[in-house]
Write a structure and sequence with these properties.
Radius of gyration: 17 Å
Number of helices: 5
Strand order of the largest sheet: 2-1-5-4-3
Helix content: 25-40%
Distance between the termini: 40 Å
CATH class of the largest domain: Alpha Beta
Number of strands: 5
Bound molecules: flavin mononucleotide
Number of domains: 2
Strand content: 25-35%
CATH superfamily of the largest domain: PAS domain
Oligomer: single chain
Order of helices and strands: HHEEHHHEEE
Amino acid sequence: MKVKKYVFDIFEHDEDFKFIMKRLLEASMEESFNSIVITEAGKGYPIVYVNAAFCELTGYGPQEVMGKSPSILQGPKTDEKVIKQLNANIAAGRLFHGKAINYRRDGSEFMMEWKIVPIHNDKDQITHYLAIQRDVSDQSP
Ligand SMILES: Cc1cc2nc3c(=O)[nH]c(=O)nc-3n(C[C@H](O)[C@H](O)[C@H](O)COP(=O)(O)O)c2cc1C
């Protein structure tokens, strides 16, 4: 069997391509072991989606975080240099990958590693950001 480079290629000839893509994306996000957050690109980066793994990781329910900024996860020990780098990267439309101390709903801290990917529309404007996050507290630095 020919190895497919893009997952889309597997289904591109199916007449239900769009529907299947939606289902695939939905299942990947809902069942992911990693935490996933989608924000709007506007001021404060309001959250529009979190998956179940985000709720498990942070202790927040989905309705509690809708419209809020992911900066609710930050606190006194969060490294400002990392956040500056994040701002610089996403303002320039680049991927961000970093680690910083974050805080759960109950105030307990953990080491968050996360990536942020800018999502462009067909006019090449950034409309959303997608973040993939995980707890790396148990990993050596
Ligand atoms: C999609 C997305 C996910 C984010 N996830 C986190 C996160 O998990 N932890 C964190 O400390 N900051 C996260 N941030 C960063 C904060 O939301 C915020 O952008 C950052 O603190 C800079 O904003 P400020 O200049 O107002 O402090 C995320 C930002 C975006 C756009």
